[in-house]
Design goal:
The radius of gyration is 30 Å and the shape is globular. Helix 6 crosses helix 9. The strands form ten sheets. A ten-stranded mixed sheet has the order 8-7-9-6-10-11-12-13-14-15, with helices on both faces. Strands 3-2-1-4-5 form a five-stranded parallel sheet, with helices on both faces. Strands 16-17-20-18-19 form a five-stranded mixed sheet, with helices on both faces. The chain contains 22 helices and 41 strands. By secondary structure, it is of the alpha/beta class. The protein starts with 19 loop residues before the first strand and ends in a 6-residue tail after the last strand.
């Protein structure tokens, strides 16, 4: 593959011995990304910028030599053989002037980036809106699919850190893909000649550079002509479709009924599991159902972006099942519908949207969360964009419940007469929408906090730093208020406990589940006595505080947002005792099942051997009517002592507990504190032999990694594990969670999974069983808590 020359007769980025490259304006996101690519490739990197930021500190930690300020001396100090600059750097910059004096090649960032992209299987993502999310989604999905991939995205992506990375080709392996967010704002789109491309949309934007929309259209048309392989474009954008329809190797995607890859989506949660994946859609390819794809992102625009990724990957011969599993783990880009805070009262989101169409898409997505009111702060971006789109901004923002503005973020532009946030406020006033202009981030934060009422959502929109600083400040303030409320309730709960009890605030549930995932619970309480438990139940009822009683967390999946309420753990000594009376064992609800089984062995009591190896407690086993080895809990239970919602003790015979397969109706509104189990006369040796047999079977058929046991109940006609195995889904992965190769009904956490990964994987398995076998897999694990947290 012939490299694109950087200057006539020279391409310093293709030399065998890497040259030194100097980057002017290196602190910007795009330039710092290029610096990371060069460092990965072995080039020596120097650079300069006006201030030292986090991007520069990361580069310095990697060995780059970065100067603060612009000075001609920096060029020779770094020993540069090539100078690269961002489009924001003026031609009068002293370092660029010195480079010309020294006859050094000087190129724009896009030119250098294009030369790197051309060395690998380049995939450009282009369009006025959605490039960062789509390119990050594509790079992440390719990586999860196991493909070698380089990438450069336009903003920070938590799952792709840093936001640009060069993967050196492996001589024994395939050439890496290179996913690049191709910027059209400065006319550099035509620098790229990729193998594949995704074109998202066309719009009247960057009119400070382009004379009119016709010139924008020509720019994209010429870029499309340079794509050597598959071009995927959005059929829902009429102007883009008119430009590209009928072009060889061009595939359309979208909601449009004639799209080659047609989206079928309704803005609702998937059937079955509540909570994440927040969004899921079907994709049809030329009239045939391609598959079902879950997302952890909100709204129709993200569905469209994801469909573009799926379409391209399918054209590159990846299977729909693997694409769905890889895509499902993607959690988004910072400042793209980023949740900064959420509790039972408020939510705060930060979003980079600064064009009317981006604003409309974000508002549509967040309204699907059904907030009480939507309170919005907006900072316009650039004087030229505000001037050209003033009416569209007013139309896009006029539908919100409350609105504030900040002064225009200039992005280096000189002010224009009559163009200001106050001009936008007047335009909004003409549409009946009041929009005060805040003096700054602190003033904005105070004003929005004063206006917030329970159930409200605060959304901060814009590309400027002031608006995101205000968002972060409001989130910090609400977090402090939440902590204060927790402390007050915590002190009241602490007054109910004796010295043997304990309470912890904002306790991560990942510490208390065998899945090793789960966000914080407001109050994690361990009562020491039955009296304390009764007082806690009364406290929760009087305050309408949600609660759950748990044991070892072995059949529990707590979402990443945690649980807004109280978790009561009965693992203390007062609830964990086991005593023997003849052939009966009287067991506290917190007694581990393994302890119960071993006590029965010591006493020569059989029939309880199946409890060995189940990583739970008596209380949890009663609630789920746990079973193994062909036996289940209520086969050996005689009676259960409970507390009702008022903390009063009551006793029930086993037959009055309303037990069923993996459930117990009585324990939906009662808390078990003690159970009487009945054993069968045997000998310690015989019981031990059976326990060893069961243990060996478990070790041979169940994984050892962190899990919650079987995640699905068995359908009547076949085991869930067998269904998953026959569908070829063992080993399927979402993020850090995967289906165990040992047992198909186990999802295991390799150590990096979050609850969203597990839930997305569960929903994929359910969909495959539904479509492939006509079976509905019902979750056996209890799913608890909020679907999002910050």
């Amino acid at each position: 593959m012939t490299p694109i020359p950087l200057s006539p007769g020279r391409d310093l980025l293709s030399q065998g011995q890497p040259a030194a490259v100097h980057l002017v304006g290196v602190g910007g996101c795009g330039m710092s990304g290029l610096a990371h690519l060069l460092l990965d490739g072995g080039w020596r990197v120097s650079g300069s910028d006006l201030v030292v930021n986090e991007e520069i500190r990361q580069l310095q930690a990697r060995g780059a030599r970065i100067f603060c300020g612009h000075d001609a001396a920096h060029l020779e100090a770094g020993g540069a053989a090539l100078v690269v600059h961002s489009s924001a750097i003026p031609t009068t910059n002293p370092e660029l002037a010195r480079a010309r004096e020294l006859n050094l090649p000087v190129v724009r960032r896009a030119t250098a980036l294009a030369a790197l992209v051309h060395r690998q299987r380049g995939i450009c993502v282009a369009g006025m809106h959605g490039k960062t999310t789509t390119s990050a989604m594509l790079a992440y999905t390719l990586r999860e699919l196991g493909a070698p991939v380089s990438f450069a995205t336009g903003w920070r992506v938590p799952q792709l850190s840093p936001h640009a990375r060069w993967t050196k080709p492996d001589q024994a392996g395939p050439m890496p893909f290179f996913v690049i967010e191709a910027d059209e704002s400065d006319g550099s789109l035509r620098e790229f000649q990729p193998e594949c491309a995704i074109l998202l949309n066309l719009d009247e934007d960057h009119l400070d550079y382009y004379a009119d929309f016709a010139q924008i259209r020509r720019e994209f048309g010429e870029f499309a002509a340079q794509v050597r392989g598959t071009l995927v474009y959005c059929a829902d954008d009429e102007r883009l479709a008119a430009l590209l329809a009928g072009r060889p190797r061009a595939m359309s995607y979208g909601f449009h009924p004639q799209a080659t890859y047609r989206i079928d989506w309704k803005p609702a949660e998937p059937a079955g599991l509540p909570g994440p994946p927040r969004t899921a859609f079907e994709l049809w390819h030329e009239g045939r159902r391609l598959g079902w794809f879950p997302l952890q992102l909100e709204g129709g625009q993200n569905v469209s972006n994801a469909a573009a990724v799926v379409a391209l990957l399918h054209e590159l011969a990846f299977s729909p099942e693997r694409i769905a599993a890889a895509l499902a783990g993607f959690r988004g880009v910072l400042r793209r519908q980023q949740l900064l805070f959420r509790d039972e009262l408020f939510a705060v989101y930060d979003d980079y949207g600064h064009h009317p169409n981006e604003i409309r898409a974000t508002l549509r997505a967040l309204r699907t969360l059904r907030p009480g009111r939507l309170l919005v702060a907006f900072q316009p971006h650039r004087f030229t964009r505000t001037r050209d789109l003033l009416g569209e901004f007013a139309e896009a923002l006029s539908s919100v419940d409350r609105l504030w503005l900040l002064e225009i973020y200039s992005a280096g532009e000189e002010p224009l007469p009559g163009v200001s946030s106050m001009a936008l406020a007047r335009k909004l006033a003409a549409r009946g929408r009041e929009a005060p202009v805040a003096a700054g981030p602190e003033d904005l934060c105070r004003s929005m906090r004063a206006a917030l009422a329970p159930g409200d959502m605060a959304l901060f929109l814009g590309a400027g730093m002031e608006v995101t600083l205000a968002a972060q400040e409001l989130a910090k303030l609400l977090r402090e208020e939440q902590d204060c409320r927790r402390r007050q309730v915590g002190e009241a709960v602490g007054g109910l406990l004796t010295e043997g009890g304990a309470i912890r605030l904002a306790e991560p549930m990942a510490r208390h589940t065998t899945f090793r995932v789960g966000g914080p619970v407001d109050y994690y309480v361990e009562p020491a006595t039955e009296q304390e438990l009764a007082a806690l139940l009364t406290f929760c009822r009087q305050r309408a505080l949600p609660f759950r009683v748990v044991g070892r967390g072995s059949n529990l999946l707590v979402r990443d947002g945690g649980f807004r309420g109280m978790i009561i753990n009965l693992g203390g000594r007062g609830f964990s005792g086991v005593r023997v009376e003849g052939q009966r064992l009287i067991c506290g609800a917190g007694a581990p099942l393994g302890v119960v089984a071993n006590e029965a062995r010591k006493q020569g009591l059989g029939g309880l051997e199946f409890l060995e190896g189940i990583p739970g407690t008596i209380g949890g086993a009663l609630r789920m009517n746990a079973g193994a080895m062909g036996r289940w809990m209520f086969q050996v239970v005689e009676k259960v002592r409970c507390l009702d919602a008022d903390g009063r003790a009551v006793e029930f015979a086993a037959e009055d507990m309303g037990f069923e397969y993996r459930g117990c109706a009585r324990l939906l509104d009662h808390v078990a504190v003690e159970a009487t189990l009945r054993g069968e006369p045997s000998s310690p040796a015989a019981v031990e032999a059976t326990m060893k047999q069961y243990s060996a079977r478990r070790k041979a058929t169940q994984p050892r990694q962190a899990s919650a046991g079987c995640v699905f109940k068995n359908p009547a006609e076949i085991s869930a594990g067998k269904v998953i195995d026959e569908l070829g889904l063992k080993g399927l992965r979402v993020g850090g969670a995967f289906v165990s190769p040992v047992h198909g009904n186990f999802i295991v956490n390799e150590g990096s999974a979050c609850a969203r990964d597990i839930l997305a994987l569960m929903e994929i398995l359910r969909e495959k069983a539904r479509v492939g076998r006509g079976l509905e897999l019902e979750p056996e694990v209890e799913i608890l808590g909020d679907d999002q947290g910050a």
